[in-house]
């Protein structure tokens, strides 16, 4: 029960932070949605980093490393560190300049102006929302699983011992886990997916959704940025503490370095080589996935909160270092869990999403497990809040105000429309999470692959005068068509190792699904743009001013 009290205390702090931020609000929709462009370099670094560090980065990477080896770090973390910073510099600064100059709040506003096309919003808005939903599901699902695992008891001879909650505390629907495909019955209280006396994962997810909704609803972007800054500090500090303690406990030697060597030696050979059980071409093509940050709508909104262009400098420099501090321990702990020094129970091994929570539980201290869980939840919630707020902003700006008329609503009404849509999105996301749609890592890769395939559109809009609205339509529609086709081929992300076979020179090479999506999107954008009329000279002069 101790760890539950610690988690509850942490969530109470977040609610308090959101309430305090709301008292500092200037009472305008601009302040609620963009914090009045007042965020400085340190808070921008912490809030942007917290936004990009999701359950995918922590829970997903640990589970993937457990399954496939340390090559996961090279695939995503090392390339993410460089590519994210490049996107901040190449895209973020220019988008901030246009947003600040022309008053944009969303990506759709920018593309409507840049492409001289009102209807691009009808295409882009549903696509962006559809891609954000899986992103939200990752966080909601992972937070519930994590809290359940760290609060559950141990199963000995079919009986649950040391449980936080006795059997029957919650309705059987929450305690008895998933339906077994063979028997048609649920696993049961002590079964593989049963709650085992922990806070049932669906209830835990509901609590997290409610807390995030609370401080976003009242605090808006200012509350979100503060909460993200606080949570980023928490999960980075506690992450380092967790890594040190687990290293000392699992290694059993006197020195930290000796324990690192002992644990590294325990990793199975197949998971110690650079690529693990990942083919070289699949490893290399994974590096397109981090380009997704260039089209994340919530990141676009965070970029607009910066006080000035120079505010980005700290984020560009420190982001790769922060990624290394967070991802390296997560990947190592996953690989250690696959080694001889850690005995992972079969139910946990069968569900890699539970590996990080199991490692946290391995500390043997309820107080420490509670603190470390708070750190993981901090990372998860710091991305959920931005995504919820972003969707509220998009609906308010791109749909309600755009089609009803800018002067149709008062400033107060605009804020309440955003809040109402945020509540609706939270409800939809939580309901979808009850259907347990797939593994955290696989869902994340599909979501990010879709955004990465829209990267050429954003880049061309900023740097290519020849981009036309028809080229943009072709790019977006091609992306979503190829994305759905390949997602269906992967059995809707259930085939977690899905790859595209490419026969070449008598051999067959595997590439990630993002490759055909990215190439098809780029091809459609370039070819159609070359064949269709360009934007007016006035628009080109607006976005490509001649330097004297």
Explain what the structure shows.
With 548 residues, the chain is mainly alpha-helical. It has a single domain (1-152, 198-451), classed as Sodium/glucose cotransporter (Up-down Bundle), CATH 1.20.1730.10. It has helices spanning 2-23, 29-34, 41-52, 56-68, 71-102, 107-115, 120-151, 172-175, 201-251, 256-265, 280-285, 297-304, 312-337, 346-349, 355-361, 366-404, 411-433, 440-453, 455-463, 469-489, 514-531, 537-543, and strands at 154-156, 159-161, 500-504, 507-511. The strands form two sheets. The protein has a two-stranded antiparallel sheet with strand order 1-2. Strand 3 and strand 4 form a beta hairpin. The protein is globular and about 75 Å long. The relative contact order is 0.17. The mean pLDDT is 82. Its main location: membrane. GO terms for molecular function: L-proline transmembrane transporter activity; proline:sodium symporter activity. Belongs to the sodium:solute symporter (SSF) (TC 2.A.21) family.
As for the CATH topology, it is: Sodium/glucose cotransporter
Write down the secondary-structure element order. HHHHHHHEEHHHHHHHHHHHHHEEHH
Number of helices: 22
CATH class: Mainly Alpha
List unreliable stretches of 5+ residues.
none
| N/C terminus separation | 67 Å
Could you give the order of strands across the largest sheet? 1-2
The domain tally reads 1
Return the structural class. mainly alpha
What would the principal axes of the Cα set say about the shape? globular
Give the name of the CATH superfamily: Sodium/glucose cotransporter
**Relative helix content:** 55-70%
Q: Average pLDDT value?
A: 82
Strand content: under 5%
**Rg estimate, integer Å:** 23 Å
Q: Please name the CATH architecture.
A: Up-down Bundle
Largest sheet: 2 strands, antiparallel
Number of strands: 4
